[in-house]
Amino acid sequence: MRWGDLNNSTNGMKEVLIIMFVEWILVLFFAYYLDQVFTSGSGKSPFFFLKGFQKKPLSSFGKPSLGKQGSKVFIQMDKHDVSQEREKVEQLLLEPTINQAIICDNLKKVYPGRDGNPDKLAVRGLSLALPNGECFGMLGPNGAGKTSFINMMIGLTKPTAGTAFVQGLDIRTHMNGIYTSMGVCPQHDLLWETLTGREHLLFYGRLKNLKGSALTQAVEESLKSVNLFHGGVDDKQAGKYSGGMKRRLSVAISLIGDPRVVYMDEPSTGLDPASRNNLWNVVKHAKRDRAIILTTHSMEEAEVLCDRLGIFVDGSLQCIGNPKELKARYGGTYVFTMTTTMDHEKDVEAMVQQLYPAAKKVYHISGTQKFELPKEEVQIASVFRAVETAKRNFTVSAWGLADTTLEDVFIKVARDAQAFETLS
Ligand SMILES: Nc1ncnc2c1ncn2[C@@H]1O[C@H](COP(=O)(O)OP(=O)(O)OP(=O)(O)O)[C@@H](O)[C@H]1O
């Protein structure tokens, strides 16, 4: 066959080539469609191509947003601090500055429902701006969407809507550029059992473009900083490390190569108190000149390490601020606890009600009761006097008066958000 034979109507080659070309175009579209609908993480609705024809709503910044999950409709009302953060993001997007390490712009993640289940809205429009040198703590109950958020930021999954900018680069289009300045400590250690701690760091150091003596020095400093240098542990296979040692190695990996932005997903899980303190010192030192996003279930860790905190419940930020601000905003109460025998519970309740009629019982289990007392009314001396009188009338095994802790704030915010979710 020669090109000239295509004009010969008797061999039919021209028609065959046209059919192949048309088939190729159709199959290309079909493959693209299957990829969009079935790809893990970025899976879209089977009718995603119709979205372009739908009328787009005007900007949703700062306004309550209405959404639908399965047959359930939810109304998302931003709290004042959260809408302020949104406005800040909006402003920063209009006038970008180099000072911001991370800007999340209405980031959303929806996992398509399978087997008749409704879609899962894991992240419902997160707006957040993080300057260089800030450690931001993300707190939230299990399943709140923290890992889904981090997975989008590190390029493991694609956002369903919205986007984020890391050092000015868009996570949807410039992930390769972002990888060079990013460190990650995942929730579950991703280590090679047969490689030593030192080999892991050499490998990741090379990925970050470190070479020669700079690489050797960075690896050594890194091993020392997480206490994996002495006693030959650096040359032991990671498979033989304890859980705590693996965790410390994961943190060291996330920090090697001087990344500008680091994500740490529950970094101190499974560490004993001494190793945890050591790890906190590493993070405190590291956060001086880089932005860190850290998820944790430990309120103590959040208070020690984070400059600002966000409490994340059911895919949305419920509040944002530094730990002191949050305690002042959501606290406003002292917590009075008293333990007696069960038959004197009523006496304790009567005593508290008489002292502070606005007191609220928040916890009660076999003789131990907790009350929230309005801070502005409480006089500590009168509480002491009332307890002394009570002790003369019945046996008090233990009692205490405490200021609001971050844990109280967390429980309150999570409970209120879940109650609101149930109501709507
Ligand atoms: N690939 C997936 N497909 C469908 N649903 C998912 C997927 N990954 C997570 N989810 C759901 O999304 C929600 C958020 O999960 P995510 O793991 O992000 O929460 P989390 O806050 O990190 O929880 P934890 O503190 O337990 O790690 C959960 O309800 C989870 O079941």
UniProtKB/TrEMBL annotation:
<keyword id="KW-0472">Membrane</keyword>
<keyword id="KW-0067">ATP-binding</keyword>
<dbReference type="InterPro" id="IPR017871">
    <property type="entry name" value="ABC_transporter-like_CS"/>
</dbReference>
<dbReference type="InterPro" id="IPR026082">
    <property type="entry name" value="ABCA"/>
</dbReference>
<comment type="similarity">
    <text>Belongs to the ABC transporter superfamily. ABCA family. CPR flippase (TC 3.A.1.211) subfamily.</text>
</comment>
<dbReference type="InterPro" id="IPR027417">
    <property type="entry name" value="P-loop_NTPase"/>
</dbReference>
<feature type="transmembrane region" description="Helical">
    <location>
        <begin position="16"/>
        <end position="34"/>
    </location>
</feature>
<protein>
    <submittedName>
        <fullName>Phospholipid-transporting ATPase abca7</fullName>
    </submittedName>
</protein>
<dbReference type="Pfam" id="PF00005">
    <property type="entry name" value="ABC_tran"/>
</dbReference>
<keyword id="KW-0547">Nucleotide-binding</keyword>
<keyword id="KW-1133">Transmembrane helix</keyword>
<keyword id="KW-0812">Transmembrane</keyword>
<dbReference type="InterPro" id="IPR003439">
    <property type="entry name" value="ABC_transporter-like_ATP-bd"/>
</dbReference>
<feature type="domain" description="ABC transporter">
    <location>
        <begin position="102"/>
        <end position="339"/>
    </location>
</feature>
<dbReference type="InterPro" id="IPR003593">
    <property type="entry name" value="AAA+_ATPase"/>
</dbReference>
<dbReference type="Pfam" id="PF24526">
    <property type="entry name" value="ABCA12_C"/>
</dbReference>
